[in-house]
Amino acid sequence: MAGLRKLSILQCLLAAHFVLAAALLALLPVAKASSLSSFWHHELPLTSIPDALQKLASPLSARLTRHYLTQLKAGTLKASQSGFCSSAGIYCSQKATPISTPITTPITGLPPGVQPRVCVPPFFFYEYGVLRCRQHGASRSTASAVQLSSSIFFAQDSLTVGKVVQLPDTSNDLKGLRFLPHSLAKALPKLNEGNKQALAEFYGVAKGSDMEFDMVDTLAHCAYKSEHELKACLTSGEGMVSFIAKAVGHKAVVYAPGAVAMQEAQVIDVKVVSSKGSRVASCHDMKFPSLLYSCHMTKTSELIDVSVKLADGHVAHMPAICHMDTSYWNPSHIAFQVLNVEPGKTSICHWLPQNSFVFVQGTN
Asked: Which residues form a coiled coil (predicted)?
């Protein structure tokens, strides 16, 4: 009997140990698929989510998201409040340094590798020159803008095997910004110019700051409509995936360009991935207090995959978009000046910056 009691006590101790261990394990963070990853695989099951996009998923847990959503609906949540902006991966006004720097020196006087701010909207949007540029600080001359853009734009027939081309610096630092959870993004005021004040107050953006100028430019871009493209501005990863599934289809194939330093490179191969008539959508980040992507789809573009031999001998595969119909572009678009061509007379191609994403219509 004594032996049985000892065994019973030992079993109880072991059982208590396992219960305690299980309780402690329950408190530890569990590695699981993010909401963005799960939504991606539901909407785009035939292709893997790029690592570059997965890293942009909201870091907020489901519990914290519900907590902040309750506060947001009650009107008590401000992005600048302690803990929220840093934990959510958005702009923190109380500790922010300017995301962009006004141009105070000519382009030739900048340190190596430093590029002046490109006026929003960026070069790859067709309305360039339509919207008034509200750049904060001294404006850049047209000559400087052309010089800056000369390695970004090119004619498709200029890419021949063996040719040495000048590549731009395609690095694109997102400053640690992350997508908002989809539920929070939907609960915020819509991305239009009429809601600029409400959005600025939520994000804690100071009047007259660089971020306010960036917000105004971005909201103007988001409001611009064109009959030649399907476009949306999105602050959640799930919103981006929904747009792509609608614009390109559930069999979409994705390309995510990396960062390449400004340098000369030799073209070793050029492949047309998706030709005119197919649906091609691209998503580019815009300047905003939280991560915001502008996605647009046309059927008049081609995606090409260019293999280049870099200065260090490595081979890089660089996707580029070629716009086959530029007749509806604004005549003041910088690309026309760079290539010395007129709207609608020729195709215009451009390299894609890091942290942009291109989706093409799948054939499987």
From this structure: none
137 in Cβ contact with 109 (< 8 Å): no
Please write the tens of the pLDDT for every residue from 75-122. 999 887 768 988 999 988 765 444 443 333 333 333 343 332 334 344
Tokens representing 64?
């914290």
Confidence band, pLDDT 50/70/90 cuts, at residue 143 = low
Distance separating the N- and C-terminal Cα atoms of the chain: 71
Contact 75, 188 (CB under 8 A): no
Q: Evaluate whether 274 touches 248 at the Cβ level (below 8 Å).
A: no
CA distance 215 to 317: 33
Helices (H), the chain: 2-27, 35-43, 51-54, 62-74, 84-88, 142-149, 182-187, 196-203, 210-223, 237-247, 334-339
pTM above 0.90, yes or no: no
Helices (H), strands (E): how many in the chain? 11, 11
Comparing CA positions, the residue from 16, 35, 59 lying closest to residue 239 is 35
